[in-house]
């Protein structure tokens, strides 16, 4: 197109996602310009090592060690470094001078999104981060834009590809946790520090972002009750399978009468639940809205190309806005989040115990549940090996976290109980 606007695009980072974003910007310039109403000129890529091997062959002249100079001459900055700093300072620098920013950095947005949005609002710049939650799946824009005229009551989903890949492999092949984690890292799904994935922090950051947008408020990751999958054993996966369940790491944000609950934990779901069929590094997110009813979003949750797709969608959206010359109204957070204490949340539980196989043991265990107001739905005992303890798996009806915690403490104190193997929630019907 002749006479069209040209926008200077600075890319920060050339790793798994950044390299694919550079490739698309270069290979697909014609289509991007036609869709944006502006040509997108990749002016440089900030890297740490000019000589490093990249996933994509790129002109060496694009690389620079001077990220700040690159930012200071850009209309649009794409941040794909990861981590809190210097990514946060770079984004703030760009927004403060009026450049729009696209990022996939959920950790940073979940911690400082409100402050960065305020800087953007003060200069009329845009800050977009669709890639930060559920990779390629369009989920933030549907929540913030398409459902802006509705009221969202609950968002629940699988939002971490690495842990889903691991749990799926443990379930389908009986693979060991560590071997599968190495594979997920090699495929580019895991964070630079994979403890963020397996410890649930990556999903917690995404849950905080989803809750903030869905409920028009500000929730940060440290307000999210977070449990990862490091304690999930092969025995848990096998016992869950035998009972007709699969274990998934779920992120849940829900609006209850007393306030908002945002939580991440490994959870049992029935094999016929739609989330049970989410395999490998795929993600899926359910949204329940007052007028829309139930919606489900599904797709690739991680990986270079899928995540680059989400980044590029934001780049085109920003470029359209800039070429039209009209600043977007900024979505506002109505109020500070009223979060409910985790102890008040009520779900069903699945508790694994080893017990000494003696007369009266089951009655004593059942009595403890009764005394703490937790009602048992079913109990399954695996025969003891020789004189060793027998394994028990107990499924409960709904009870509060507070009641569960006191039940588990009492079980641990019982002589007949050898160990409490695991305590997990059960979600879905
Ligand atoms: N990989 C995915 O599937 C995926 C999906 C969604 C979001 N994200 C997010 O996208 C971002 C990038 O992820 P990635 O998987 O591409 O990570 P990556 O580790 O593959 O790439 C990051 C790159 O940035 C470089 N870098 C780090 N600090 C730098 C600095 N100060 N200056 C210049 N270069 C620097 C690193 O050397 C590396 O090459 C992260 O915020 C991540 O959470 C990743
Ligand atoms: N490490 C993240 C990348 C996508 O955000 C995951 O495994 O889902
Ligand atoms: Na997304």
Automatic annotation (TrEMBL):
InterPro entries: ACT-like_dom_sf, ACT_dom, Asp/hSer_DH_NAD-bd, HDH, HDH_cat, HDH_CS, NAD(P)-bd_dom_sf. Transmembrane segments: none annotated. Residues 350-425 form the ACT domain. Gene3D superfamilies: 3.30.70.260, Dihydrodipicolinate Reductase, domain 2, NAD(P)-binding Rossmann-like Domain. Its cofactor is a metal cation. GO terms for molecular function: homoserine dehydrogenase activity. Keywords: Amino-acid biosynthesis, Methionine biosynthesis, NADP, Oxidoreductase, Sodium, Threonine biosynthesis. Its EC number is 1.1.1.3. The keyword Amino-acid biosynthesis applies. Signal peptide: none annotated. Pathway: Amino-acid biosynthesis; L-methionine biosynthesis via de novo pathway; L-homoserine from L-aspartate: step 3/3; Amino-acid biosynthesis; L-threonine biosynthesis; L-threonine from L-aspartate: step 3/5. It is an enzyme of class 1 (oxidoreductase). It catalyses: L-homoserine + NADP(+) = L-aspartate 4-semialdehyde + NADPH + H(+); L-homoserine + NAD(+) = L-aspartate 4-semialdehyde + NADH + H(+). Belongs to the homoserine dehydrogenase family. Catalyzes the conversion of L-aspartate-beta-semialdehyde (L-Asa) to L-homoserine (L-Hse), the third step in the biosynthesis of threonine and methionine from aspartate. PANTHER family: HOMOSERINE DEHYDROGENASE. This is Homoserine dehydrogenase. It comes from Glutamicibacter bergerei.
